[in-house]
Write a structure and sequence with these properties.
Layout (H helix, E strand, L loop, with lengths): L1 H6 L22 H8 L6 E4 L2 E2 L5 E2 L1 E4 L6 H4 L6 E3 L6 H9 L3 E2 L1 E4 L4 H10 L4 E4 L16 E2 L30 H9 L11 E9 L2 E6 L5 H14 L2 E5 L17 H8 L4 E5 L5 H9 L3 E3 L7 H4 L4 E9 L1 E2 L2 E2 L2 H6 L1
């Protein structure tokens, strides 16, 4: 069925209404050319692609792609599909999460338990259940990925926090509302569209680890709030700096980028900076390691501060199958 579906696609001009697949917008880069022309050991063509003289590429399907292989770990952005076999759902999730990228992912299953398990462990910013995994709609499925599929604080385009990251925030001398905001907003699954045929869930997933860098001019109240935010989110805190407290062992890493090496080794991709100016050298060193430095003031507003300790995730779930509504899966995920 897959072979027939791919071979039945009509390749041609976008001006022709019969065209299913038009030429690539950005042309064919080296990665995509390799994906279309070179097979790795154990692989074979289920459908062999071709690059025509006019630059148009016909779609292809690679069978027998192995975990850890070049095609598994490389983002090619083109019409070549790789098929990988998994013994069970956990192995399939592990294969998907082994990628350095985490933009979209999907599952087709009518078993609510499988859907629930997948949604709790898949490492993507946009997840799709029983539907295509492209074509995100603003507000309905705010768009943005995890890991190397995102840059910076990670607020999704079309989501509730995107505009907030374009402003600046100033701390005020009031009590923080972190616990209240965590309970009422961050620990809650949201579906503002309210469609009966499709659930579009927006939720926050805690970062596994969070970095904390404390400089000499840091105020203790700001440090305490950062630690409180990390605890509420359930993120393991990796601390650095003379003012970070007893939960860090800096050694001689206070100079240069040594502390960033430790953050990278611990799997940190965000660091809360308090009481220290982010220099161009520091920002460049962090960028090379794939680490975002959040250096804005720590405010008592939980709606602002807690965003640093979570990832945003959107789940879109088709609630009908062959004309029958099947909403149980979405209710389990709320």
């Amino acid at each position: 069925q897959l072979t027939d579906a791919v071979e039945s696609l009509t390749i041609g001009s976008p001006l022709d209404l019969e065209t299913d697949m038009a030429p690539l917008v950005g042309g064919i880069n080296d990665r995509l050319r390799r994906a279309a022309e070179i097979l790795d050991p154990g692989e074979s063509w289920l459908v062999e692609p071709s690059i025509r003289d006019d630059g148009v590429m016909t779609p292809g399907v690679r069978a027998g792609v192995e975990p850890g292989s070049w095609f598994h770990r490389t983002e090619c952005f083109g019409p070549v599909l790789g098929l990988m076999a998994a013994a069970d759902l956990d192995e399939a999730i592990a294969i998907a999460n082994a990628s350095d990228f985490g933009l979209t992912g999907g599952i087709h299953s009518l078993d609510p338990t499988e859907v629930d398990h997948w949604s709790r462990h898949i490492g993507v910013g946009n997840g799709y259940v029983n539907r295509p995994i492209t074509g995100a709609i603003v507000c309905r499925q705010p768009f943005g990925g995890w890991k190397q599929s995102s840059v910076g604080p990670g607020a999704k385009a079309g989501g509730p926090n995107y505009l907030m990251q374009l402003g600046t925030w100033t701390a005020t001398d009031v009590d923080d509302d972190y616990a209240e905001q965590w309970a009422t907003h961050f620990a809650t699954t949201h579906d503002d569209t309210g469609l009966f045929c499709e659930a579009n869930l927006f939720r926050y997933r805690p970062l596994p680890v969070m970095g904390l860098r404390v400089g000499a001019s840091a105020e203790q109240v700001a440090v305490d709030r950062a630690k409180k935010a990390a605890k509420l989110a359930g993120a393991t805190l990796v601390a650095s700096g003379a003012g970070a407290g007893d939960d860090t062992d800096d050694g001689d890493e206070t100079d240069g980028a040594g502390w960033l090496d430790r953050m990278e080794a611990a799997g940190v991709d965000r660091v809360r900076i308090i009481g220290e100016t982010v220099t161009d050298e520091m920002a460049s060193a962090a960028t090379k390691r794939g680490i975002h430095l959040a250096s804005d003031p720590v405010t008592p507003a939980g709606r602002v501060e807690l965003q640093h300790y979570v990832r945003e995730q959107a789940l879109s779930i088709t609630l009908h199958r062959f004309g029958n509504l099947v909403g149980a899966a979405s209710e389990r995920l709320r």
